[in-house]
Structures are given as C-alpha cells and as structure tokens.
Specification:
Blueprint (H helix, E strand, L loop, with lengths): L8 H18 L8 H12 L5 H7 L3 H6 L15 E5 L4 E8 L5 H4 L7 H15 L8 H15 L5 E8 L7 H15 L3 E6 L1 H9 L7 E4 L5 E6 L2 E9 H6 L5 H5 L5 H5 L21 H11 L7 H4 L3 E5 L1 E3 L7 E5 L2 E4 L1 H13 L8 E8 L3 H11 L7 H5 L3 H12 L3 E3 L13 E3 H12 L3 H6 L9 H5 L16 H11 L1
Parallel strand pairs: 2-3, 3-4, 8-12, 13-14
Antiparallel strand pairs: 1-2, 5-10, 6-7, 7-12, 8-11, 9-10
C-alpha cells in the first residue's frame, strides 16, 4: 500500500455499508443493533478470515457480552481489548481495540486514534505477562487469559500483536506512537508489536483480487530487457504464444509447468480472474481485430510474423523473480493481464482448433512489478490502444468503479463497470455504469441534455460529479436507467 493516504468519502461509505449488512445478518441472532458491534464481526471475518462462530467466540467486548444475557451479574471491564484471537499454529495472540464512528465523514476524516486506549491495553499486557487475572475482568476475557496461560504451560511461546482498529484514516499522533513503541520495546522487547487496521486497510481487503494467480514461463533466448526506477520495476520480454495461454490457465499445475504437452493445455479454459484489472470483458469474435488475431495465428503463411503484427500484452504482478541472462525462467506472483485480453482469448481459440503453428508464434510481453493500485490502474489506462477504447472502458478499472461494485454487491445488485460484466445474472438486478450515470446527470444534477446527447462527458469531464455526489441522507445515490422503475431502485438502494 502507498505511504500516502488518499482520503475518500466513498471509502467511508463502503465500510459503513458492509457494517450495516453485518448488523442486518447477525443483529437479531446476537441481540444487538449497534453498528459498532457489526464492525466487530465485519473486521474479524474480513481481516482475520474467521468463521461466524469463531468471530463470536473471539469477542471480549463487555457491551456485547452483556447483550448475550448469559451472565446474571453486571460487569464493566474488557480492559480496552474488544476481541482476542489465539492462533496456536502460528504462535500469535492478536489483541484488538476497536473504535467505530457513525459521525459525519467531515467530522472524523482527520481524526486520530484516541490516545487514552493506549493505557488500557498496556495494563492488560502487564496482567498477561504477570500471568494475573484481575477480579473485575469480564468472564470471557478471563477465559481467554486462562487459555493463553494454559497453552504457555504446555510450552507455547507466543508473539503478541496489538491491533488498533477503526473506520478513520489516522493512528495516534507521532509523539503518542513514539511513546507506545518505546514502552513496548522497553517492557517486552520483541514479544509485543502493534499495528493499525484503518480505512485504507479495509478498502484494500474489500477490493483485492478474489484469486492470487502465480505462473512461470521461459523467455525466448536473450530477448528481454529490465528497467528499475522510481520504486517500480519493468521487464520487457519475448514470450511464446503457447506459454502465454498456459500462464492464464485455470489449472494451477499447468501454470507452473514449463514443458507440457499441447493436449494438457487444451483441457483447461482461461482463468478469467487473471483479467480483473483489464478494462473490458472479452468481446468474443465480434470484433474484426479479434478475428484478425485468430486468423493470423492459424495461417500457415502469417503465423511466424505474428510478433510484428501484434502490440503484445501487458501484465502486472506483485512479485517478479528470475536468474540468468539467457532463456531465464520468470516466476510471477499475483498476475493481472491489464492489456491483451482480446489477444490471449483469440489465441486460445486458435490454439484449441489447431496448435501446429504455435511453435513459431511469439509476441511482446511487458511485465510490471508493483503493489501500487493507482499505478496499476494507470498502466491499464495508458497501454490499451489496440481495440478502440473509450472513456467508459478506461474508467472501468478505476478504484471508484471497483468500490461502487463492491458496495452494490453488498446490497444484492450487480454493478457493471465493464460492459455486460454480469451477462448471466438477473437483468433486474444489473446496473450498467453508463445508464446509472446518465440518470444521475439527468435527475440529480439536472443536466438531461448532457445525459442524452453528451454521454462521452460522463466518463471524462463529468466523471467525478456523476459518481461521487452524497445525497441528503449522507449516502451515495446510485441510479440505473431513465425509467420510473429504475429511479425507484435508486431510492431503495440509497435508503
């Protein structure tokens, strides 16, 4: 993640929408209606990957425990720790302090984590290392501490991680953070560390790729060049067309095998998750360019010249490694094809029909190693030029669009930032990005002429106004078509 924090009202609303869903799903079952308690479940499931029962058992928050009405007496102390996760396998104990804000975004966007929470957590740490359970600790917290002590008695040595969790952007002030670090080092050396889980961490988790795709391929001879600058790394290489098809296969073993028979590659389809950062859904063979790619690949005369006729493909990855200067094997972790979807799909169709020519087909491959989401988006935007790409296509991989899709999915809708992205889903639940913005321009911004006659401005000069306008209720309005039915759908989503 970038060190620079970009604050966004959209991020705040996306987290709030997810939390509201957890309140709706779990509130009746566990006797709560507060968003702060939905936030507990949301964090434990989304960040720590716990199942519902595991999340329930991890919560030590006194208010939550009292609502379960399992204990007759009143008790007050969770010692500033609202959840504890004991990972015996990794020898880590996670201690979590939560703060959830329902105030207006403008009032909390520059807020720092409350410093009075530090003293509470440090006192509990002292109890843990003194192996003491104070009488005013709530019963669930007491049980968790006893479990830790019992595991230590069996020879387990734990690392303790303190997590300060909130729907704000800032941790403690620099001075407060410095004092906390010094206290932990002085008192516990390397046994205790702390970290923040804030808005930016949640957003990264919510919009991350659903599948991490790794692969290997061998460069053709010495035909590659690497450049590293400004914290980014790029490698340009010649890749065999068969390898290009193989490394996006939906079979992990196939992606990792350098030498493999054609028949094995043909057995498996392309893994479409490798194209989530691409600006478009594959256009099949409706495009003349796609047809020409396939025809060139299957032509006895033209296939060997494919390298000169094609612009190549662009791939981003989170990690790139190789050794040697002649025909090195490249290992790529976290592949995303940001430009070249049409080329790869067309080649796959040609390969499945006739693989004989593919030993002579190679093409240019640009690979960028980066974890910077904004940089990936710009690479996709600037390198898409083989098929005509309009502004709507380019914006489809913008973070604003990805977040809109995620928020609407929580509400049960399919937001199509790419054309026909959810072609197989219920059409009454599909919301096309362009029609959505047209309605917004027309009804909300009172620009019906622009909505009808200047659609190109929706994803250019009118982009931010069309997609990031809060309504009176403090949420984002989403619209789909120009019909009365779709306007009602907008109101339902916003309510």
């Amino acid at each position: 993640m970038n060190s620079k924090i970009i604050k966004s009202y959209q991020d705040y609303v996306l987290i709030k929408t997810n939390v509201e869903k957890f309140v709706k799903d779990y509130g009746e079952r566990y006797k709560f209606d507060e968003q702060s308690m939905g936030f507990l479940f949301f964090t434990l499931e989304k960040i720590f990957n716990l199942q519902e029962d595991e999340a329930y058992n991890a919560i030590t928050d006194t208010r939550f425990i009292m609502k379960q009405k399992k204990y007759g007496e009143q008790f007050t102390h969770d010692k500033g720790v609202d959840a504890i996760v004991i990972n015996e396998e990794e020898k880590v104990v996670h201690l979590m302090n939560f703060k959830f804000y329902t105030k207006d975004y403008e009032k909390i966007k520059d807020k720092h984590f409350e410093s009075n929470e530090i003293a509470k957590v440090l006192l509990l740490l002292s109890d843990i290392f003194e192996r003491t359970i104070t009488s005013n600790a709530n019963p669930i917290l007491s049980e968790k501490l006893k479990e830790i002590f019992l595991l230590q008695d069996k020879g387990n040595r734990f690392e303790f991680k303190i997590h300060f969790v909130s729907n704000i952007y800032n941790g403690f002030t620099d001075d407060e953070e410095k004092l906390l670090r010094e206290s932990l080092i002085k008192g516990y050396k390397n046994d205790v560390t702390f970290e923040y889980i804030l808005i930016q961490n949640f957003i990264t988790k919510l919009i991350e790729k659903r599948e991490f795709i790794n692969a290997k391929f061998k460069v053709n001879g010495k035909n590659f060049f690497e450049k590293s600058e400004y914290g980014y790394r790029a490698l340009i290489a010649e890749i065999n067309a068969k390898d290009l098809i193989r490394i996006v296969s939906n079979n992990e073993d196939i992606r990792m095998k350098i030498d493999i028979e054609d028949e094995e590659i043909m057995k498996y389809a392309i893994n479409e998750n490798a194209f989530e950062d691409n600006v478009r859904v594959y256009l099949k063979q409706r495009s003349n360019i796609n047809k020409n790619i396939k025809n060139t690949a299957t032509s006895d005369e033209e296939s060997s010249k494919f390298f000169f006729f094609n612009n190549g493909v662009t791939i981003t990855c989170e990690k790139l490694s190789y050794q040697g200067k002649n025909s090195p094997v490249l290992e790529l972790d976290g592949i995303q094809v940001v430009n070249g979807s049409q080329t790869i799909h067309s080649l796959k169709e040609a390969f499945d029909e006739n693989a004989e020519n593919f030993y002579e087909i190679s093409l240019l491959c640009r690979i960028y190693e980066t974890n910077d989401l904004g940089f990936k988006s710009k690479i996709a935007e600037y390198t898409n030029n083989q098929n005509p790409v309009n502004n709507r296509d380019v914006r489809s991989i913008d973070l604003i669009q990805i977040k809109l899709q995620e928020e609407l999915s929580v509400k049960g809708y399919f937001y199509e930032r790419k054309r026909n992205q959810f072609d197989g889903e219920d059409k009454n639940l599909r919301i096309d990005a362009e029609k959505f913005a047209q309605s917004f321009l027309s009804f909300r911004l009172q620009k019906p002429a622009e909505a009808k006659n200047k659609k190109s401005t929706i994803f250019s000069s009118e982009y931010e106004g069309s997609f990031i306008i809060p309504c009176q209720s403090g949420k984002i309005i989403f619209t789909q078509g120009m019909t009365h039915e779709n306007r009602n759908r907008c109101r339902a989503i916003c309510s």
